[in-house]
């Protein structure tokens, strides 16, 4: 087992002093570090291990891969308690993963990513599971984190060898595979505070001489970290794989997986509220703690102090608990055939998602979504060598269909949305490596991608006005008209159809009669005389195609047997698309060009590893998501940002002076800047901390343009540091103790495009520690763990609402417990 590559900080000195063992025991030990599985790790006694990766569509040592990549072995994932994607940041400084509620998961690498508020926007960082690219990150990150061989994080554009183009990078989740001739099993069970229980296990069975079956399952639960029960976890997973090798030249592996994610779901808490006046916006803190949640008596009392527009009545308490009910399943295969031309690989896959959720947001009482996604993909590639040329060529096909119903209840505004979205993508790719000598290689690659997309959707808005649609009354006059009095104006329930909403208004006496035709504009007079209701109709039916050739050029040089120098320049592309948005139903593709210079080295008889990488990325037309003014309304939509520069360096140092002790340090410096970024909006969404100017008017509405050029990209901390130490104390041939401490520093960073003070996430340290007793010859271990020793919850994803609320989701509090593992 590789014992190491764990991170640490100020707590490490105390732990090492307590556990230190003399280095003279080194001749009896094995190497420390990541051990993903027999297939992907090679052991070296007394030195650092090698982890095998397949990021370049071939098996090679991580140290031999001339690309920007981090890899975490499956056993290291277990030892660090990484059972979901958000915790990958403990080992990958460049990565940020957030869950903003519902089934939305956002991934950023070095500031390149996208805040996911809709399912029709392709991810900038592409997730994949078992070699199958996934259109939606939630399906992979909510489902796959158990019985893994490894996780690979590729930093930078993936425009050649991967299933779909990605501008920011890729996260490859690779499950442990069946092993021929092996009868084995294992499990890990942990118990912790917040009534946390986590269990995962696997079984590998031989089926004759040329077949094997591997079955794995997991169950993870814990209570909510917030007082309202949110930020909980209820997840179950099952996976089965059958491997059949009838001949030496043919291998067939078929897999299926199923995951259900339930519970309350992700939650946020109120930070405060912004109110507008003659001198601009004034912020008032809520006085609530960061674990309050939005569905407690105190949170509801605070919510009811705010006025909602355009009805200008005080908001109602949230009266329904949120929930998550998501199911992900899929089947896939990997067929490999050795031919006279090279190795042929075929990967067909089908995946389906059913996601239903009710969740809170800063702008609405409750939001309900019901979505059905299905995707089919197939990839065929051929790899081999001809003379001094190594080659990989192939083709890729992808088809995705989405059916979504969403209701975002803002009390005085009830949007009811439904859309179907379809994507069909074709690609052909090839990469050549010219081995000009034993130590020098040139690489070139091309990929042509054609994406075809379409959307067919409809938005019906029910908007309650204080006064009339034509002459909107605003406070304090609205109070005289009774608009702020309970019952004067309707507070909509969460209804999913136009007909149900109109009938509800009639049956509750708000209107006398009205049309239930969704394809119509209509104004309803309130029977109270306090105002009117406008029912809008906005269809979006759009389709189109996007095509691009992306490329890569690089050079590799083996300066010494354990020293690699490499340089690459490559381009990335993310297709444009269509959205359910009034006035702006389409957005353009985004592009990136990345320059990388790196060096990977092992020194001192394989006891020191030093990897250094410098990068410079040119980013153009980034697809961003924010509230803007479009088509006469304020709407959250995707737009293109302009230009940005990203530059910096990574340093990764691992030292193992004795087999008992491993030190690790990872440092990333990141400098990001928007060269062009203009955000256009109108009141009350004009609270943006950038210089503004009048861009025009739309009737009586003044449209403002905010020049945010010079601001950094979101989720791009200038400095990120991961430090760690692990120390082994041998007691006997059959017993040893292992202590580890890991800590991570994240510099301050921005989490939203308004660039308001609360949206700047402060810098912080987070430290974890473990103490393990293990029987190395039997595969049994018991671990005591504590995460977030500082016991501080940090802002994970801030959000500003149209009605002025400032809210945020927070990282996990301090957690601790016992973990038991065994291998048979």
Automatic annotation (TrEMBL):
Domain TonB-dependent receptor plug, first and last residues per copy: 62-170
Keyword Repeat attached: no
Topology within the bilayer: Multi-pass membrane protein
Domain TonB-dependent receptor-like beta-barrel per the UniProt entry, residue ranges: 271-789
Major localization listed first in the record, in broad terms: membrane
Keywords, in A-Z order: Cell outer membrane, Ion transport, Iron, Iron transport, Membrane, Receptor, Signal, TonB box, Transmembrane, Transmembrane beta strand, Transport
Gene3D superfamilies for this protein: TonB-dependent receptor, beta-barrel domain
UniProt keyword annotation of GTP-binding present: no
Signal peptide: 1-26
InterPro entries reported in the protein's UniProt record: Beta-barrel_TonB (IPR000531), Beta-barrel_TonB_sf (IPR036942), Plug_dom (IPR012910), TonB-dep_rcpt-like (IPR039426)
Subcellular location: Cell outer membrane
A Pfam family the protein falls into: TonB_dep_Rec_b-barrel
Family: Belongs to the TonB-dependent receptor family.
Protein name: TonB-dependent receptor
Species of origin: Novosphingobium organovorum
């Amino acid at each position: 087992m590789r014992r190491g590559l764990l991170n640490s900080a100020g707590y490490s000195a105390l732990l090492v002093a307590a556990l230190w063992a003399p280095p003279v025991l080194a001749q009896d030990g094995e190497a420390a570090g990541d051990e993903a599985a027999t297939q992907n790790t090679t052991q070296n006694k007394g030195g650092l291990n090698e982890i095998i990766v397949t990021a370049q569509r071939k098996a090679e040592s991580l140290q031999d891969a001339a690309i920007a990549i981090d890899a975490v072995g499956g056993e290291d994932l277990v030892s660090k308690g990484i059972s979901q994607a958000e915790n990958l940041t403990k080992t990958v400084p460049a990565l940020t993963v957030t869950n903003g509620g519902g089934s939305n998961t956002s991934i950023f690498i070095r500031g390149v990513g996208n805040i996911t508020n809709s399912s029709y926007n392709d991810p900038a960082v592409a997730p994949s599971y078992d070699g199958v690219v996934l259109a939606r990150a939630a399906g992979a990150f909510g489902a796959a984190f158990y019985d893994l061989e490894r996780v690979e994080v590729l930093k930078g554009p993936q425009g050649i060898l991967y299933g779909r183009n990605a501008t920011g990078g890729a996260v490859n989740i690779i499950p442990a595979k069946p092993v021929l001739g092996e009868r084995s099993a294992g499990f890990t069970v942990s118990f912790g505070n917040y009534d946390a229980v986590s269990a995962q296990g696997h079984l590998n069975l031989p089926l004759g001489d040329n077949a094997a079956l591997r079955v794995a399952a997991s169950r993870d639960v814990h209570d909510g970290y917030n007082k309202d029960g949110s930020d909980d976890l209820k997840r179950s997973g099952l996976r089965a794989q059958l491997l059949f090798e009838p001949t030496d030249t043919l291998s067939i592996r078929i897999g299926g997986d199923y995951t259900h994610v339930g519970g309350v779901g992700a939650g946020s808490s109120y930070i405060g509220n912004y109110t507008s006046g003659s001198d601009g916006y004034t912020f008032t803190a809520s006085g609530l703690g960061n674990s309050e949640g939005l569905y407690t008596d105190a949170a509801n009392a605070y919510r009811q102090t705010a006025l909602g527009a355009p009805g200008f009545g005080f908001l109602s308490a949230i009266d329904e608990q949120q929930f998550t009910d998501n199911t992900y399943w899929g089947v896939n295969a990997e067929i490999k055939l050795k031919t006279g031309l090279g190795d042929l690989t075929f990967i067909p896959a089908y995946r389906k998602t059913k996601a239903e959720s009710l969740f809170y947001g800063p702008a609405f009482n409750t939001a309900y979504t019901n979505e059905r996604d299905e995707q089919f993909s197939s990839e065929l590639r051929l790899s081999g060598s001809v003379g001094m040329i190594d080659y990989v060529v192939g083709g890729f096909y992808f088809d995705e269909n989405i059916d979504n119903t969403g209701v975002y209840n803002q009390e005085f505004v009830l949007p009811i949305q439904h859309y179907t979205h379809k994507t069909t993508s074709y690609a052909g790719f090839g990469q050549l490596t010219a081995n000009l000598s034993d130590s020098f290689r040139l690489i070139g690659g091309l990929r042509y991608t054609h994406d075809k997309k379409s959307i067919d959707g409809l938005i019906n808005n029910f908007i309650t006005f204080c006064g009339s649609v034509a002459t909107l009354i605003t406070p304090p006059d609205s109070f005289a008209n009774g608009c702020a009095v309970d019952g004067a104006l309707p507070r909509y329930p969460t209804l999913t159809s136009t007909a149900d909403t109109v009938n509800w208004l009639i049956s509750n006496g708000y209107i006398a009669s009205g049309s239930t035709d969704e394809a119509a504009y209509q104004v309803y007079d309130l029977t109270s005389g306090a105002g009117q209701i406008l029912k809008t109709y906005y269809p979006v039916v759009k389709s189109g195609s996007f095509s691009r050739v992306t490329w890569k050029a690089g050079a590799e040089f083996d300066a010494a047997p354990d020293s690699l120098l490499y340089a690459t320049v490559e381009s990335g592309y993310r297709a444009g698309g269509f959205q359910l948005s009034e006035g702006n139903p389409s957005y353009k593709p985004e592009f990136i060009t990345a320059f990388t210079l790196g060096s990977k080295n092992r020194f001192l008889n394989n006891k020191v590893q030093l990897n250094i990488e410098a990068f410079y990325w040119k980013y153009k037309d980034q697809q961003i998501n924010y509230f803007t003014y479009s088509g006469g309304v304020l709407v959250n939509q995707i737009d293109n940002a302009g230009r940005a520069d990203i530059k910096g360096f990574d340093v990764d140092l691992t030292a193992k002076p004795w087999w008992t002790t491993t030190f690790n340090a990872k440092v990333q410096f990141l400098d990001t800047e928007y060269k062009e970024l203009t955000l256009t909006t109108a009141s009350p969404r004009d609270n943006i901390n950038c210089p503004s100017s009048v861009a025009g008017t739309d009737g009586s509405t003044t449209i403002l343009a905010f020049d945010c050029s010079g601001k950094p990209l979101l989720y791009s901390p200038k400095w990120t540091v991961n430090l760690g130490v692990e120390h082994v104390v041998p007691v006997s041939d059959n017993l040893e103790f292992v202590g580890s401490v890991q800590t991570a520093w994240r510099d301050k960073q921005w989490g939203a495009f308004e660039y308001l003070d609360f949206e700047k996430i402060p810098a912080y340290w987070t430290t974890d520690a473990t103490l393990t007793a293990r029987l190395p010859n039997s595969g049994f271990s018991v671990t005591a763990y504590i995460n977030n020793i500082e016991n501080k919850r940090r802002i994970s994803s801030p959000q500003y609402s149209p009605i002025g609320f400032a809210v945020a989701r927070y990282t996990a509090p301090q957690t601790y417990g016992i973990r038991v593992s065994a291998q048979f």
